[in-house]
Automatic annotation (TrEMBL):
Name of the protein: Uncharacterized protein
A Pfam family: LRR_1
Subcellular location(s) of the protein: Cell membrane; Membrane
Gene3D superfamilies reported in the protein's UniProt record: Ribonuclease Inhibitor (3.80.10.10)
The UniProt record lists the keyword Phosphoprotein: no
Alphabetized UniProt keyword annotations: Cell membrane, Glycoprotein, Leucine-rich repeat, Membrane, Repeat, Signal, Transmembrane, Transmembrane helix
Length: 456
């Protein structure tokens, strides 16, 4: 044995000694190790987890089980448990949980007194039976839990426990389940609350105002009723507010203008009334606003001046809006990509200022209104947007010049404008202000003839 080899062997021995002594000191408490095995066996009995991972689970564990060292107890503890195959990069243990009663499963998590995150994806998916959530779910979970995610678990049923405020939750995501019940009382630590795609009913509780750290509030696709409480508008740190696809009624509170950091507001598919609040014009950070399919009514307010720097999407379909489309939308909305004003009762022309939207817009839907007059968009824009420009169902809208094959997209369907609707290139009276008819081309030819006569 040469000196090089023996040196290497010595170093390896030293390393082994270091590792084994440190693991002895840092080992996972046996109660946590045992609870982890039991949970893995409960969630997916088709693997022999004890044989697959015989060592300390903080050293070798299935993906999704994470530990941390805690000097206070001078040992490792499990801090994260993630279940359900998510992707090749996060290949958590797959689930095959078929029992109808999950109480004993969730009770096992109380063994992890340092657990911060619990994540279930696609774990309760049985087509034949539901798994009931324990009625006391939040009391069963460890009092250290900050992050609870139950995503895409369609056969998870039962009702929420009404009080989750004893947990130091920062993120609560329960989405895509059959869970019902009312929105529970939440701790003020919470930053993200996503309870979308469940069967939650009742009203948004005024107590939501204590959650002043909320950035994301998504309660979409539920059965919520009642009105939007004013307290909702005290959540000044909200960036995203999504209440779409519920049965919320009443007015949008004018105090919504207090949500100064809001970037995304989606209230579409509810039963809101009372007009678009002018206070919205103060929400200068708003990037997307979707109110479509409510009974909001009224006119489109003049609120666009301060909103133009950020607004990229506006969904105002099917709101019962009346009156004209404000020209200010064309003037100020410098970044607009998506605009839907379809299925309203809007009348008057499409403002010529809408020509300015051409540099940014990629989808414009004005169909099924009572608009009339010349469409202000250029032929290039019409071709570029194709079917993403919708103008049909407005009996009075028309276009200049040739119809049919020369212009593509939605303009194909529009008739050519009558003379009075085409802006005149030069102000020369033809003596036929009223009652002139024919299409734009006839008027232009008339002007050319007239000019010819003047020159001669
Ligand atoms: C799930 O478990 C059942 C028995 O409980 C078994 O019949 C089935 O094959 C398992 N499915 C998978 C995908 O492992
Ligand atoms: C579910 O199991 C727990 C104990 O494991 C039991 O106390 C409870 O009654 C069960 N619930 C139902 C609905 O069977
Ligand atoms: C153009 O005028 C004719 C007859 O004057 C009328 O029937 C038609 O509706 C008008 N078209 C438009 C687009 O206003």
């Amino acid at each position: 044995m040469d000196t090089k080899t023996s040196h290497l062997l010595l170093s390896l021995l030293f390393l082994f000694f270091i590792l084994s002594s440190s693991t002895a000191a840092l080992s996972l408490p046996p109660a946590e190790q045992e609870a982890a095995y039991t949970i893995l066996e409960t969630i997916n009995p088709s693997f022999n987890w004890r044989d697959l991972y015989p060592d300390d689970l903080c050293i070798s564990a299935p993906h999704g089980l994470l530990c941390d060292f805690f000097p206070s107890s001078n040992s490792n503890h499990i801090t994260e448990l993630n279940f359900g195959y998510f992707s090749d990069y996060t290949s958590n243990p797959t689930c095959n949980f078929t029992s109808t009663n999950s109480t004993s499963l969730f009770a096992l998590f109380s063994s992890f007194t340092f657990l911060k995150k619990l994540f279930f994806f696609n774990c309760f998916t049985s087509l034949s039976s539901y798994t009931a959530l324990p009625p006391n779910l939040f009391s069963l979970l460890p009092s250290t839990l900050e992050d609870l995610v139950l995503l895409n678990n369609p056969s998870l049923s039962g009702e929420f426990e009404m009080d989750a405020s004893s947990l130091p939750l920062k993120r609560l995501v329960i989405s895509g389940t059959a869970i019902s019940g009312e929105i529970p009382l939440l701790p003020s630590t919470i930053r993200q609350l996503v309870l979308s795609r469940n069967s939650i009913y009742g009203q948004i509780p005024p107590s939501i105002s204590r959650c002043t750290n909320l950035n994301i509030l998504d309660l979409s696709y539920n059965r919520l009723t009642g009105s939007m409480p004013d307290q909702l508008t005290q959540l000044v740190n909200l960036i995203k507010l999504d209440l779409s696809f519920n049965r919320i009624n009443g007015r949008i509170p004018d105090t919504i203008s207090g949500l100064k950091n809001l970037e995304m507001l989606d209230l579409s598919f509810n039963q809101l009334t009372g007009g678009i609040p002018t206070g919205m014009g103060e929400m200068v950070g708003l990037k997307e606003v979707y109110l479509s399919w409510n009974r909001i009514g009224g006119q489109i307010p003049e609120i666009w001046e301060k909103m133009g720097d950020n607004l990229v999407g506006i969904g105002f379909s099917g709101l019962g809006l009346i009156g004209n489309i404000p020209a200010s939308m064309g003037i100020y909305l410098r970044k607009l990509c998506f605009l839907a004003l379809d299925n309203n009762l809007l009348e008057g022309p499409v403002p010529v200022q809408f020509r300015r939207l051409e540099s940014t817009a990629s989808e414009v839907n004005l169909e099924k209104n009572q608009l009339h007059g010349l469409v202000p968009f250029s032929a290039d824009f019409v071709v570029r947007l194709g079917s993403k420009l919708k103008l049909g169902g407005n009996r009075g809208l028309c276009q200049v010049g040739p119809t049919g094959s020369e212009k593509k997209g939605s303009l194909e369907m529009l008739p050519a404008c009558n003379a009075t609707e085409v802006p005149r290139p030069v102000v020369i009276s033809t003596g036929e202000e009223n009652g002139c008819s024919g299409n734009g081309r006839v008027v232009l030819w008339g002007l050319v003839l007239l000019l010819g006569l003047l020159v001669v």
